[in-house]
Amino acid sequence: MVHRIQAPPALAAPSQELGQRFFTRTDSALQRAVEAADSAKGYLHWDQFRYREPAAGLSQEELWGLIQWLRISTSRPLPLLLQKSGRPFSLSTSGPMAAALHRIDTKEVLWKQALGPSAGEARDDTYRLMAAIEEAHHSSAIEGAVTTRRESRDLIRTGRPPKSRSEQMVLNNYRALERLDEWKELPLAPELICEVQATVTEEALDDPDDQGVVRTDDEVRIHDAVTGEVVYQPPPASELTERLDALCRFANETPRDEDFLSPITRAILIHHQVSYDHPFADGNGRTARMLFMWSMLRSGYHWLRAMSISRAVHLDRTGYYRSFQYVQLDSGDVTYFVRHQLRCIEKEIKRLADFLEDRQRVATWMRDRKAIASDLNARQLALVDCALRNPDATFTVREHREFHAVTQPTAWKDLQDLVSQDLLTESRIGRKAVYGASEKLKQLSRERPD
I need a surface site. Which of 167, 236, 276, 381 has the fewest CB within 10 A? Predict the structure, then answer.
């Protein structure tokens, strides 16, 4: 059965008696019921809240009325980010949202600690390049690209030409990520937005004339993937020039203390507005996610390059699309989308922390067994870890060079050092040297701790 999202009931002011029960904190059941709608677990929409058990002797509609009034009391309009009606979107700030932002803000310190005191630029680059491949793959998959992670890695590591539109989408995303260091030095402008879209859609459009050009018609519709019905029609093309100008002012402004927004929140709002305005015939989602990265990097969140936020979004596509719909069905309360994206960021941070912990644990285990030298660099550790997990994998100097963005001599030395330590073997296919796990490393793979 297809789930149809139910719009909230009409807003009704809570009774004076109900408000008194809440604000005097004399009714613990009422407190718990209200807090459940905005907690670390999420910011509930009526479509979710209505299924909860009634509490505090009240109907769900009565409780929802109180929740809505409380949200309105903590919300702020976003004058430069407009709905189709012309009314600004609004953002509700609360303790759980502030706590999530704080947790994310402190992760830069934790990230540096996880890398260890010897972490340097090379190690940062290793994780950044790994994450870029994951981000390119998952951001494309969200938009319907049909390719496996292995195929995406092979495409980027080997430098071979893409075999399909799906692979072209992955390659385009990767090339756009590589250009972020260039783009982050520029203020946002309509021309830059078009350049980003042109990069992520190159040779991957039904109509090549749509590349890098703002749409001029109102034919774009967003359809439900199951039912095929239209669930959203973006603003008319005649408004896009003004809307893009407003978005750029929002992205570039230096806010006063009185209307300060967390840079993370600002980046997420840019993502939402591009998706909402849908200024292009195609590539809007990929462009929006790339501009989220642009905003985060421009604000100094460079550690974000070591993870793929699109991975968490891809794994929760239903929640991603519903968060857009919740905003539209609840008077433009963009908090639903912001909170969903904050959860995705936190999930990816945890995944990365778990990965780093596991890699460090395995490296320590191998050093304790005298299986590897203590001075292996980050690139070599990454390659050994990959071979441990995939003992049948093969590697070439070219792949290692391109994956880690190093010179040919550096890549060759990395691999030869591992051969000399009996961790890799070298063979030849024609004139090309191919490296694979040695028998020693394959044995270690079988003994590797879980």
Answer: 236
Among 178, 223, 231, 225, smallest CA distance to 200 is for 178
User: What kind and span of H or E run contains 88?
Assistant: strand 88-92
Amino acid at 284: N
**Is 324 in contact with 332 (CB distance < 8 Å)?**
no
Which residue intervals of 15-148 are DSSP H helices? Answer: 16-23, 28-35, 46-49, 60-73, 95-105, 107-115, 121-142
Q: What is the pTM of this model?
A: 0.90
Average pLDDT, the chain: 89
Q: How far apart are CA 328 and CA 199, in angstroms?
A: 29
Helices (H) and strands (E) in the chain, counts: 21, 9
Long-range pairs for 326-331 at CB < 8 Å and ≥24 separation?
326/5, 326/45, 326/47, 327/89, 327/272, 328/232, 329/5, 329/7, 329/8, 329/45, 329/47, 330/7, 330/8, 330/45, 330/46, 331/90
Mean pLDDT over residues 93-105, rounded? 92
What burial letters (b/e) apply to 125-162, b meaning 16+ CB within 10 Å? bbbbbbbbbbbbbbbbbbbebebeeebbbebbbeeeeb
The DSSP call for residue 142 is: H
> Using CB atoms within 10 A of its CB, is residue 333 exposed (0-12), middle (13-18) or buried (19+)?
buried
Query: d(Cα 170, Cα 2) in Å, to the nearest integer?
Result: 31
